[in-house]
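for ur thesis appendix - Rab GTPase-binding effector protein 1. copy paste whatever u need, i formatted it the way the template wanted (i think)
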Amino acid sequence: MAENAFETSQAKCPDITDSVVDSVVAAVVKERPGDQEKEIRRLQFELDEARSLAAVANYSLEESIETERRKCQEEVATLQQLMKENIQEAIRETQEQSEGEIRRLKNIVTRLELEVRELRSSSDRDNPNVFSAVTKTLARKVGNLTNPNILTSQTPPQVPLVTATSTESAGDDYLEQSMKRAQEDVEVLRSLVLPLEEEIKALKDKLRYTDEQLRVYESNQVAELVRGSELLNKIAEDESLESVIADLISRTELHTQDQLSERDFGLFLAILNAQRTTLQEERERLRSQMQETCQLLEQERRHHRELRRSLQKNNLHPTSQNLMDCNKDGSKGFPIKDRIGPLISRISPVLKRKSSAQSPSKETSVDSYVLDSSTFGIPEVASTATKNSTKEEIENISFCSVDSNLTSSEGSFMHADDGHQTTIRYRVLEADLQQLQEEKAQVDKQLIKAREESQMLSELIKDMEHKWTEMAKDYEKQVDSLFGNIQDAQGQLKSVTSAFNKFRNQAQETLRQLQFDRQSVSTELVRLQEENDFLTGKHSLHAEQLQNEMINLPDNLQELQYVCLNLREDFIAAKVAKEALERKWKMEILVLKNQLLSEQKSKETLENSLTGEIDYLREQLGLMRSVQTQLEEESSRKTSLEVALQQAKEQLADLKNRASESVSSKAKLENENQQLRNRVSSLQADLETSEAVQRDFVQLSQQLQVQLEKIRQSEKELRWQYEEDIDQCAECRQTFGVAKRKHHCRHCCQIFCGDCLRKTVTSGPNKRQSRVCNVCFYLLVQESAPFFSSEPQPSN
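the 3d part is after this line
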């Protein structure tokens, strides 16, 4: 529809445009006849543009329609494909469902047909007896009716009536008895059929229940398999094993001891095996880590010993070098004391204040040096050498410290001794001082490195201690969990064995009961056989007696007929009784056979189940024995691990002792370094205070010069300042505002803020208080402190 409308609109467009153009051209011709050509060209150009635009629009519209058509076709094709697939799937599902339903209905129909056939056969077996009895009674009734003269000759005309009435009443009674027997047979059949139907229903319900239980068991089995795979995946993903075992224990605790299933026990064994493998892997990994850490510790010890030896060498080398240099200088005629003597005599008054503070530090430094040498493992020879040369080293170190303290005053001493020959000595001392400073810097670097290494070693020891404690805790937890699992497994084994014993006792009891029932059934069969034999013997005896007896047949035909009828009735009654007994015994035999077959089947099933249970329990016992052996192996491994843990603890204690020794040596080094830092900081503070005092002097001198210059200039000009001319305070240079008001100094007449104009001076006979600035206060009050000081000026 849209395409047809578009084609019709496209066909109408040229006609409409032509008509519009013609009308516009006619209007233009009528309005302006002079500009016709220009207007026609313009309109023609516009028409061409409109046509080109219309063509482009038509082309784009066609493309959009084509794309939409293609999309619609693709969507329709996909929908058709989906519909086909859904229809095929629905047809297949319905076919499967219908086939399953047809099979189920066929099974039901066949089962019902079998039941109907059995019922028909049983009814056919029972009904002929009833019909035969009825037909026999009718025949006897008819025979009695056909023989009217049965009485004796004394009353010949009345015999047929009496016999007819008697036979008729006897036939009615027999018919009623036969009907009653038929009703009883029907009731017996009903009593047999109804329990059979109820048993069939019960069997159907039991079959349904077993089917449901089977489905539930399959679903539980699948769920347990999925759960087991999840647990194994968790263990494979290095998840915490304690959480997996806790989950399994929480699941197994839900079941009672008697209801412990095979899959739970198998899953438990699988988890134990997985735990054993993970513990073995963890033990191997920890053993490798312990070996690596021992190797690292051994390397650290070697490195630490090398560092101690290098420190020893570096500490002994400068002292020996200094002594050698001093000996060389002494041999040349310039002993160290002679070179430094004039300097010490000049600076002794300056160092009197610091001698008391430096002497204990020197002693402690020497003592710490000796202690450090002892702690760092210096040999005894080197230590004795250091002890013997301590006095010379102390003198050398004191001279070096004096030189280092006097570096700031070198210029002054050099200027004072320009004409003296101490320049050479000073240069030598400066070279020695520079060398000692370089050696001190090297020793400081080595000390920093040793501190870092000792800190790293202490951190490593702490980390190892923490790791070993955590590993010990983890092993203890795992051992506790293993013991708990062992106890649980032993409890479960006890419960399984108790359940097995209970089940075995029950099975033995049921077997005894079945044997007793079998014996009772066999005795009953023997009794019935004997009774049957006895009855058959009686029959044969009666038959023999009848054969041996004399046959006294009556002479009269009527009496003979009467005897025949009596014998026939007796024969019919005996036959009916025989058939009834046969039916009864057949039914009892069938019932007993069925009971025997069912008991045999139940016995076979029970034996099969018992054999299966016995095999299963044997397998479980084998598994439990294997688990017990594994647990014994785990206990032996645990003891070995405990021994290894004890050895590791001993190694850790040794490492702790060594770490404490290194920490003590580190503390001594830190104390020495702290003393040196305190000295450096005190010297730095003195230097900073002197520099600050110099800066303050320079600043104050500059301020005084500025103030004096201002005072000099103020003598040449008017002192009073007007408020509208001044925007800033003359002292603090802050702008005035609402918070800061302008105030005049009563002496210099300059404008200040309230914070800078707090001092007052009394003037006049009335002693009035006048506010003045700081400079004017210093000029007016002679007892005041100087301008750059905070203490008052001392009075002479």
